[in-house]
Design brief:
The chain is mostly helical and 183 residues long. The protein is built from 7 helices and no strands.
């Protein structure tokens, strides 16, 4: 399995370095993709249409984001995967990271938000966010900082977090009405 993962990762990273514009776009997307996604979620707080449901989804997305990253920290207690550039699999286009490679926090965060939107029935926004999440995940492999399975594992962690939040944080409960009534 490792050989396949390393081979696919190497191939995807091999696309880098042929176009300065695409390299720049991937570096930019990797750096600002998740913060822009979070900002896009936050600004919807004041959206007028179906305000209470929208706010419930936004809180669910935020909780999914946080739970996904917390799950990653738990996984890191047991898994210490070397980055692909440290193993000579990829060439790195950005500064190296001191963190282990698995799972990808970028993939976790972005897919947690997308899954939260989709699980709460906001399909149009959810599919758009999922497409952005896919691009962010791809950028991490393209730049040489993650294996393919790192971003797949991160995506699964984010989706799992959204499922847990969807099951635990119910709409129109007392706490939900209090949180969604703020501002």
């Amino acid at each position: 399995m490792y050989e396949l993962d390393a081979s696919v990762t190497h191939s995807m990273n091999g696309l880098a370095g042929h176009s300065a514009a695409i390299d720049f776009l991937m570096i930019w997307l990797s750096a600002v993709g998740v913060p822009l996604m979070v900002l896009a979620v936050v600004v919807q707080w004041w959206r007028r249409a179906d305000r209470s449901h929208t706010r419930h989804v936004l809180v669910g997305a935020g909780l999914s984001f946080l739970l996904g990253l917390a799950l990653n920290q738990f996984i890191l207690l047991f898994v210490h995967r070397m980055r692909p550039y440290d193993g000579g699999i990829t060439h790195l286009l950005i500064a190296p990271s001191a963190d282990p490679s698995f799972p990808s926090d970028h993939a976790t965060a972005s897919f947690a938000i997308a899954a939260a939107f989709l699980l709460h029935g906001m399909r149009r926004a959810g599919f758009g966010i999922a497409a952005a999440a896919g691009l962010i995940a791809f950028s991490r492999i393209y730049l040489g900082t993650h294996y393919v399975t790192d971003v797949l594992g991160g995506a699964l962690t984010g989706i799992l977090a959204a499922i847990i939040v969807r099951a635990a944080y119910r709409e129109n409960t007392r706490i939900d009405r209090w949180v969604t009534g703020i501002l």
